[in-house]
């Protein structure tokens, strides 16, 4: 048999998922309690509801912001498809007018059409501008329709990319004193488990119908920690006035969950090299704020470094990083 001490734990205390995911897990548990329609559950239903509301009150707005970012990401994709189609038209016009392998052809297409099409998101503004400048330069020979099309594509791309970047900064959740609130939820879940079991002593397995465990215990756990410290999360101190590179590896299909657990508001950015200068406006991460960032939106795998800045000269910073 198991040692009795193995039962004397909070089952959800040491889980490594983002707040949004855990909120969904806790919300579903609450709804399963309601659906059971057992008067004995009334007290814990009320307690669970109050804890959910007080802890995750802003989660609906968070979900809306995430949906907006996804929509704008698709909008960027639509613009890039238009750009690729216009590049084909530009290519055909140049070949017809100047002939392939001519000096002007090589100026317009030094790397062929693929030089314009196969790029990372942050490279497209330069490629669009390059195509626009060349179409404008040879508009007397090629006409103005191609130049006008690239002008519109530039405008559409800039608008969509700006909106995407803006909403990226909003896909966050600020929950003051989250750790303390999470401890209350852990205790409530244990209390709920005990209540359910007391009501079902002849069928204790019914407990599994009140929880969607797969949400918080993924089949394949990814970790940002070194091999000898596989606890699922990585804690990085960011001292006063310091710029620190995170010792974390991520792939293009990962989502990084970044939480500010320190006493200072921080900034962060992704870079191709560890000593790359920060952009003019790094992402901001307030105290008690968590951000979920998809690696494929920040230029991975080329941008493989996650760098934090602590602008404060009076308070130390700290972040927790997980991969999902």
Summarize the structure.
The two termini are 34 Å apart.
Question: Overview of this structure, please?
Answer:
It contains 9 helices and 9 strands. The strands form 2 sheets. A 5-stranded antiparallel β-sheet has the order 1-7-4-9-2. Strands 3-8-5-6 form a 4-stranded antiparallel β-sheet, with no helix packed on it. The protein is elongated and about 85 Å long. About 6% of the residues have low confidence.
How many helices? The count is 9
Total strand segments: 9
Structural class assignment: alpha+beta
| Fraction in beta strands | 5-15%
Q: What is the chain-wise order of helices and strands?
A: HHHHHHHHEHEEEEEEEE
The largest pleated sheet is described as: 5 strands, antiparallel
Order the strands across the largest sheet as they lie in space.
Answer: 1-7-4-9-2
Q: What's the rounded overall pLDDT mean?
A: 83
Helix content: 40-55%
Shape: elongated
| Contiguous runs where pLDDT drops below 50 for at least 5 residues | 166-171, 219-231
Kindly provide the radius of gyration, computed on alpha-carbon positions and rounded to a whole number of angstroms: 26 Å
Gap between N and C termini: 34 Å
């Amino acid at each position: 048999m198991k040692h009795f001490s193995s039962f004397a734990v909070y089952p959800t205390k040491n889980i490594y998922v983002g707040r949004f995911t855990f909120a969904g897990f806790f919300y579903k548990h609450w709804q399963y309690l309601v659906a059971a329609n057992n008067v004995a559950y009334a007290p814990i239903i009320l307690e669970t509801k109050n804890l959910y509301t007080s802890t995750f009150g802003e989660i609906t707005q968070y979900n809306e912001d995430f949906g907006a970012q996804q929509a704008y990401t698709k909008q960027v994709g639509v613009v890039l498809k238009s750009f690729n189609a216009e590049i084909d038209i530009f290519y055909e016009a140049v070949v017809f007018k100047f002939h392939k392998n001519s000096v002007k052809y090589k100026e317009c297409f030094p790397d062929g059409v693929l030089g314009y099409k196969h790029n990372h998101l942050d490279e497209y503004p330069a490629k669009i501008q390059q195509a626009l400048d060349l179409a404008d330069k040879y508009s007397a020979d090629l006409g103005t329709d191609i130049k006008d099309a690239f002008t519109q594509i530039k405008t559409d791309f800039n608008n969509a990319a700006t909106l995407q970047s803006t909403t990226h900064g909003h896909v966050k959740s600020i929950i003051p004193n989250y750790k303390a609130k999470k401890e209350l939820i852990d205790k409530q879940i244990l209390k709920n488990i005990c209540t359910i079991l007391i009501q079902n002593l002849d069928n204790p397995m019914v407990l599994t119908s009140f929880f969607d465990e797969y949400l918080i215990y993924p089949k394949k756990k990814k970790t940002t920690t070194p091999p000898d410290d596989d606890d699922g999360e990585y804690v990085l101190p960011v001292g006063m006035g310091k710029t620190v590179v995170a010792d974390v590896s991520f792939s293009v299909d990962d989502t990084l969950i970044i939480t500010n657990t320190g006493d200072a508001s921080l900034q962060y950015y992704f870079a191709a090299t560890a000593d790359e200068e920060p952009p003019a406006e790094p992402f901001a991460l307030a105290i008690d704020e968590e951000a979920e960032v998809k690696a494929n939106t920040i230029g991975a795998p080329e941008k493989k470094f996650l760098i934090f800045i602590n602008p404060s000269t009076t308070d130390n910073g700290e972040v927790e990083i997980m991969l999902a």
